[in-house]
Amino acid sequence: MSAIGCSVSGREFRKVRNKFDPELARKRKPLMITGAEKILADRPQPPASQARFFQAVPSKSGTAVTKEREFTVQTEWMLAIRDRKDKSAFAQLFDFYAPRLKGFVMRGGAGAAEAEEIVQDVMLTIWRKADQFDPERAQVSGWIYQITRNRQIDLARKGARAMPEDLAPDEDHEPDSAQIVALEQEASKLKKAISGLKPDQRSVIEHAYLGELTHQEIHDLTGLPLGTIKSRIRLGLERLRHELKGLREP
Amino acid sequence: MKTINHHIPEALMVAYTAGKLSHVYEVVIAAHISMCDRCRADMSAHEAVAGSVMETTKSEALSQDFKADVLSLLDEPFEAPAPRPARQGIYPGPVIEALKNRDPRWRSVGMGVKQDILSEGQEGSLRLLSIPPGQAVPDHSHTGMELTLVLQGSFLDETGRFGVGDLEIADDDLDHSPVAGDGDTCICLAATGGPLKFNSLVPRLLQPFFRI
To answer: Residue A244 sits in which domain range?
Structure first.
């Protein structure tokens, strides 16, 4: 079972990690201005709408200082797990996702004990396959959904689920925090839109993604109330793919 | 890559994302996504939607010690998964997987048409078809949905022209007569919900023999 359809090589991720962790890059090359610092310096200042990305943390002296957090907490946890095998970040991610995952799997008909077995498998897969997480291509929650569904299919039938080829690693691709932020913004709108659905509409979507509807039943629905936001996420991802391909195929 | 005109419709993509398709259909969908950026992005978008649904689902309290149990397993050794098969020639990774890394074993079914049955069972059949340019595939109908993905060349039928990467979806009421286009031999990956049925007498007599 491979966790995601779009994975990138470990080598690329090490490059990404260095860019994303200026602390690490600084330690490595103390006297030079690193690429990471340049990226951070060149990065446009986030607009006021991204105020949620700034988090107040207590300083050692006891007074609160504002530390810039670039991405959502979920993405930050995942990057810390991926890049530094950070167990405290994993514990935080666990606290956030494990009860939600358990609820989601139980909505799909699993008993409490069975649901916890699945949640345990998924959580360990997140830890072990963290190097396949690419925030430019997937939201943490979407990535976890996929791992969960693959695990459920593995348990339900013989033979793994057929998955698309992994995307070819692109050694020259520079990590693009603007793309990650853009994807997160679309995802946050998506989440808001889903929270705002009427109960019966939400129920249809939930049943579909919980795997409770057959293809024919989904087909017979007069259109899922997914709205335009899903299309925007899709277009954003498609644009990224084309940009990457443009870089690869001169 | 040539332009792909026939993509995965929404209902089929939702069913694939949610793991509701049988394996033979999954292989065709996964092969198409391997060839089609647009559908890969669409799949990611569906996963984003599903992830948001998961994230906004009512939480269930975890049993005592559950977290400690999981955290204690983090340092356990584990086996790294085998790398996924890559594309070889005209065959995308999921087809190589279905071929179990062997070359196609073509068997003639008459009129220059050849096939290689990759899997056949209760849940349906998966085959590679090779059709010479200009040759018609015998008129046939099938139980359940038929998915056909063009890997090389092209074919035309009552619903349009299908080139490399295009996915045709035929339901069981469509009696269609695909004809391979000019140029390269048309090679397709086809999945059906059951065995193909031929509508003219001679191929029907041959059907049990050739398992087509």
So the answer is: 10-248
